[in-house]
Amino acid sequence: MSAGSVAARRIRTVAATAVVTAVAGAAFVPATAVAADKAGGHALKMTLGAPTPTGPLKRGGATESMILTVANSSDKAQDFSAWLPGTPDGPSPVLKDSIVFDVTAVDAPATKSAVGRQDGSFQGLFFPATGNAASTFSIPAKTEYTWKVTLGLGASYPTNDGDFTLTAGRLIGDTDDDPSRNTQVFKTDPAITPGKLNVAWEQKTGAVARPGQRAELVLNATATGPGEFPAELERTVSAQQFRDGAGNPDFVLEAEVDGKIVKLKESNDSEWELPAMAKGFGSAKGTESIKLYLSLGKKSDIKKDTVVPLEALFSMADSWGFNGAQTKVKAGPALVTPPSGTPSTSPSASASASASASPSVSASGSAATTTGGTTGGTTNTTSTTGSLAATGSGGGALYGGLAAVLLAVGGAAAWFGTRRRRTTRV
Fold first, then answer.
1. Taking a C-beta distance cutoff of 8 angstroms, is the pair 348, 342 a contact?
2. Range of 24's domain?
3. Judgement on whether residues 175 and 59 belong to the same structural domain of the protein
4. CB-based contact 54:185 (threshold 8 Å)
């Protein structure tokens, strides 16, 4: 399973008329808010020039600059605003200070710039200095505005990421912003061939989660390629896609930590935080595995055997769910053994013959497990089966800018940013 499909349920469809969102001056823009239009027929034309000086960018080194031009060919003033989202080539999202970014006016009104982040994606923004991140420029008829865009790599730019791609796109305005004319790829030094973060599940064949009975799983993570992740990796397991029952499956998830089985506390309904993986995870660390045990509690309303979708999501800093994998686990109610040794009487068919009793014994081979909880429960231990895995390469491109959007009355944009919070960790 691809990393994109793992996060598909997190993505909200955004209307083409949507603009941007922000809070407290930090901007958040939906990646799907602006679709490329056919060339021609637009009042405004935007062009992002080539960077100078040319050459690869070094972490913590010199920056490069480009000229962004917006020309108004119409006979009336046009409102305009834009953003410059960026994506690293590699498995790691960029941290907040991984990119150096600035926009200054060359032949345009005084300008301010900011870096917005939504689910950890890089979003460069600029706006009139007299306003805020929701403000727009008004470009007079037959006039061209220009800005200088500066970009560099911070010292924390991930060592397992390679080139960085920056694209200029419109937010508001009748603008031709063809990506082929508004995209620049910045090479990095040292140059690398990025690897991937591979996430996969293992589970026991025939394992069924029940009250007092655990289904055993293993969550594995392996990195390939050079470099390492610059911060700890947080892992979330969710069963929120489960829809059977009356709404109270009462899932219980346990993890093996330091040789002991520990019950995990829910951070949200049917969602748990696993112990984080330490900063610096890379291919040299090998496979990071954690054993997990799913069972049902006493209050579970699951009445028949069913299938539970489980999702593992990996996050780093404010980059939530940039990679992950899915699997399915069988679950059902407690097994009940019928009483054994029940006699049955077979009377003689002849009226003159004496009756004889022929006892018939029936018994179930299934063990009765009616206790709730998992501490004293049993664990399925049969052979392993395959897993549904996801790999991550360029995770920021997949998950950047997944914000809800409000289109303000009268053309003003109200900005709001949303981000899942993980408040509990074992």
1. no
2. 15-191+395-411
3. yes
4. no
* Cβ contact 262:254 at 8 Å: yes
CATH number, domain at 142? 2.60.40.1510
* Per-residue H/E/C for 142-180: CCEEEEEEEEEECCCCCCCCCCEEEECEEEECCEECCHH
3-state secondary structure 220-236: EEEECCCCECCCCEEEE
**Model pTM score:** 0.73
Within a domain: 312: yes
**Among candidate residues 130, 72, 142, the one with its CA nearest the CA of residue 105:** 130
CB environment 253-262: b (16+ within 10 A), e (fewer) = bbbeeeeebe
Q: Say yes or no: 184 and 204 in one domain.
A: no
Instruction: List the pLDDT tens digit at each of the 426 positions of the chain.
Output: 444 444 433 332 232 233 344 333 344 444 333 344 445 689 999 999 999 999 999 999 999 999 999 999 999 999 999 999 999 999 999 998 999 999 999 999 999 999 988 767 899 999 999 999 999 999 999 999 999 999 999 999 999 999 999 999 999 999 999 999 999 999 999 999 999 999 999 997 778 999 999 999 999 999 999 999 999 999 999 999 998 766 789 999 999 999 999 999 999 999 999 999 999 999 999 999 999 999 999 999 999 999 999 999 999 999 999 999 999 999 999 988 776 655 544 444 443 333 333 333 333 333 333 222 333 344 443 333 444 455 444 433 333 333 333 333 233 333 333 334 443 334
Q: Phi and psi (nearest 5°) for 284?
A: -65, -20
Task: Give me the torsion for CA of 352, 356, 358, 359, rounded to 10°.
Answer: 140
For residue 183, what are the β-bridge partners?
167
Q: Which of 402, 389, 412 is nearest to 3 (CA)?
A: 389
Beta bridge partners of 112: 127
Do 19 and 68 belong together in one domain? yes
Asked whether the beta carbons of 16 and 411 are under 8 A apart, the reply is no
Burial class (CB in 10 A: 0-12, 13-18, 19+), 131: middle
Q: Both 182 and 218 in a single domain?
A: no
